């Protein structure tokens, strides 16, 4: 097991334990304390708990070395894990929103909602602190080792912290204001659901684009083109293509060289193109340079 996988497992296991405690507390006090918002927040934490296991399962595979069956490496495993995190988060958001809307409609039709227990406030406040810690802890290591799955999981922690803020506000209105303000508890759960769905879409789009082989941004392509043209011996650049592959970037490019040079000279120019790109974009590149004579 390499050092990167060890870091990801260490960080994710911390999140697993914190999420396990929060799921138990939120669901118990949410149901016992008559707070739909805290119950919704509990299921959000449960989705976070599930994605922690997904990160551990998939990311370990993504750092395996390339083999005959996977000559480009196994980086897409982390891409898939990130996409799954986003999809699970979206599903959680939709389910929470549906429950909140159902209660809201019931309240508007005259049903009297129960008053949440004061303990639900304490649990929501504790959740904000614990999930913000998880976010900062996870995002720090995610950026340090450049792990998309770990960064996505960090934002999942942050969305849980934000949802707990909405829970705290909604439950406070329901407890301390007049009975008609108890409607704020399901309203808070709907707001939580909307925030979860927005976070889910932001998390899921980049890995889905990668799985669909979307090109890198035009700004990056132009920078690559400029780097290649600066290599001595390159007369023309065309058909430059690039895409993400897990931790790597795959680059395909055609370069034109003088037609009277030797094969050895052409190979040297191609090698210099590879070195120039690695200097600018890092060593985690898979580069294919096709040489053509300049006519």
What labels would you give this structure?
3-stranded mixed beta sheet, mainly alpha, 295 residues, Alpha-lytic protease prodomain-like, 69% helix, 8 helices, Alpha-Beta Plaits
Describe the structure in your own words.
This protein is mainly alpha-helical and 295 residues long. It folds into 2 domains: 3-211, Cation efflux protein transmembrane domain (Alpha-lytic protease prodomain-like, Up-down Bundle), CATH 1.20.1510.10; 218-293, Cation efflux protein, cytoplasmic domain (Alpha-Beta Plaits, 2-Layer Sandwich), CATH 3.30.70.1350. It has helices at residues 3-32, 36-62, 76-108, 119-145, 148-176, 184-211, 218-229, 263-281, and strands at residues 236-245, 248-257, 285-293. A 3-stranded mixed beta sheet has the order 1-2-3, covered by helices on one side. Helix 1 (3-32) runs antiparallel to helix 2 (36-62), helix 1 runs antiparallel to helix 4 and helix 2 (36-62) packs antiparallel against helix 5 (148-176). The longest helix is centred in the first third of the chain and has 33 residues, at 76-108. The mean pLDDT is 83.
């Amino acid at each position: 097991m390499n050092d990167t996988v060890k870091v990801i497992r260490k960080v994710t296991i911390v999140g697993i334990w914190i999420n396990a405690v929060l799921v138990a507390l939120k669901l118990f006090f949410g149901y016992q304390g008559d707070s739909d918002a805290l119950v919704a927040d509990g299921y959000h934490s449960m989705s976070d708990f599930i994605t922690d296991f997904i990160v551990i399962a998939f990311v370990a595979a993504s750092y395996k070395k390339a083999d005959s069956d996977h000559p480009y490496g196994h980086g897409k495993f982390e891409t898939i894990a990130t996409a799954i995190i986003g999809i699970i988060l979206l599903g959680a958001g939709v389910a929470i929103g549906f429950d909140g809307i159902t209660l809201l409609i019931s309240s508007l039709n005259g049903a009297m909602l129960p008053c949440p227990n004061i303990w639900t406030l304490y649990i929501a406040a504790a959740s904000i602190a614990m999930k913000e810690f998880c976010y900062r802890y996870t995002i720090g290591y995610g950026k340090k080792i450049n792990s998309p799955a770990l960064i996505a999981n960090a934002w999942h922690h942050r969305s849980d912290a934000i949802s707990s803020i909405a829970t705290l506000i909604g439950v406070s209105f329901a407890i301390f204001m007049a009975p008609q303000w108890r409607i704020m508890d399901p309203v808070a759960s709907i707001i939580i659901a909307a925030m979860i769905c927005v976070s889910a879409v932001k998390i899921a789009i980049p890995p889905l684009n990668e799985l669909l082989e979307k090109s890198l941004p035009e700004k990056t392509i132009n920078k690559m083109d400029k780097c290649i043209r600066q290599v001595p011996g390159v007369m023309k650049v065309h058909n430059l293509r690039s895409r993400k592959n897990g931790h790597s970037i795959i680059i395909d490019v055609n370069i034109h060289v003088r037609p009277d040079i030797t094969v050895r000279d052409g190979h040297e120019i191609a090698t210099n193109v590879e070195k120039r790109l690695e200097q600018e974009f890092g060593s985690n590149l898979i580069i294919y340079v096709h040489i053509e004579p300049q006519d």
